[in-house]
Amino acid sequence: MMSLNPCSKSIAITKMMEKKKIDETKTIEFLSKLELKSSSRIYVSFVRRFFDVSEKDSLDIIEILNTLDILKPIYKIKISNRLLPEEYEFLRDIPPIIFDEESYEDRQINFSENVFVFFKVIKDE
């Protein structure tokens, strides 16, 4: 069975308690929920609702989890309210121009308007 790296989990609990003043029990519960979400997407709003914190605090929590290899960002292109099927692990991998098969035209990618980010859980075997 795959699970979160125990060392990363322990460090995450400590960092979230120290830096964000989040209760240890709440952090453990959150990390347990993450383990169940290994095949689904994690959004900033999930973190914000779970901890009842601001968007900035949610991003801080995600950054802690990202630096500990618990979460990794995944980028997708959004055009006209549609997410294209390709996923990118790094912003540098996103091409500046993409062919949109629905409109049959090349589209210039604007990173602030067309790039959508979500997160995936990284689990060890």
Task: Describe what this molecule looks like in 3D.
With 125 residues, the chain is of the alpha+beta class. The protein is 42% helix and 25% strand. The strands form two sheets. Strands 2-1-5 form a three-stranded antiparallel beta sheet. Strands 3-4 form a two-stranded antiparallel sheet. A hairpin with a 4-residue loop joins strand 3 and strand 4 (105-108). Helix 1 crosses helix 2 and helix 3 packs across helix 4 (55-67). The chain is elongated, with a radius of gyration of 17 Å.
Low-pLDDT residue intervals, each spanning 5 or more residues: none
- What's the total helix number? 5
Mind describing the biggest β-sheet?
3 strands, antiparallel
Helicity level, as a percent range? 40-55%
Which structural class fits the helix and strand makeup?
alpha+beta
Distance between the termini: 6 Å
Number of strands: 5
Q: What string, H for helix and E for strand, traces the elements in order? A: HHHHEEEEHE
How much is the average pLDDT? 91
Note the quaternary state here. single chain
Q: Rounded to an integer, what's the Rg over CA atoms?
A: 17 Å
Give the strand order of the largest sheet, numbering strands 1, 2, ... along the chain.
Answer: 2-1-5
Shape: elongated
How are the elements arranged and paired?
Elements: H1 6-20, H2 24-36, H3 44-51, H4 55-67, E1 71-79, E2 82-88, E3 97-100, E4 105-108, H5 111-114, E5 115-121
Antiparallel strand pairs: 1-2, 1-5, 3-4
Helix pairs in contact: 1-2, 1-4, 3-4
